[in-house]
Amino acid sequence: MIFVVRAKKSATVLLNTLTAVQAEYGETDYSNIFQDSMNGDETADILARHLNVIKRCKTGTNGCHDSPIKLAKPQDKDGSGTAGYFAEAGLRSMGPLLVLADGSVIAVTKYSSCKRIFEATVTDENGNVVTDEDGNILKEERVGYSCFDLTVDTNGNKGPNQIGRDIFSIFVDPDGPEKGSRGDLWNILSAEEFKVVPYTPGTPIK
């Protein structure tokens, strides 16, 4: 299947790029290369030296990837009881973008610290947000360990623009890519299967 081929190719590109950065700096600890003081654009500068980039969009600018991104399966993300988006503004909402010659687009999300506490929405076992009796979405504190995330759309703005189909993320901690990935990328590489559900945003969650 073409999406499996693209996922494998993009994964190889990302992993080879990270290895090339280590070789450039003579350093294996990514927290020493991509320091806390660096922002997303500075992080993208380093990565771009090892990628075949044909276009760049700095943080918050349009023109590289503005297509809405669907979740891997229908989930209520705003308490409305309807299926929502992962990112309605596209990859540009996630940081600076690098458009590659093969048509893929990479978003770079840089964090101020590799280990950090952040606020996240509380979800149920199906990934739907949990609300209190007044309809307010519940929040909780979580701990993150990645220094930065790389999110790739394997075919750019073309559809289906869905997590786990043509959009994936890897999370890079000081030692390298974490075992977890957004879109179940590592499983796709080994099992060559997708765990996604087609849906139309705005439809009721059953």
From TrEMBL:
This is Uncharacterized protein. It comes from Candidatus Scatousia excrementipullorum.
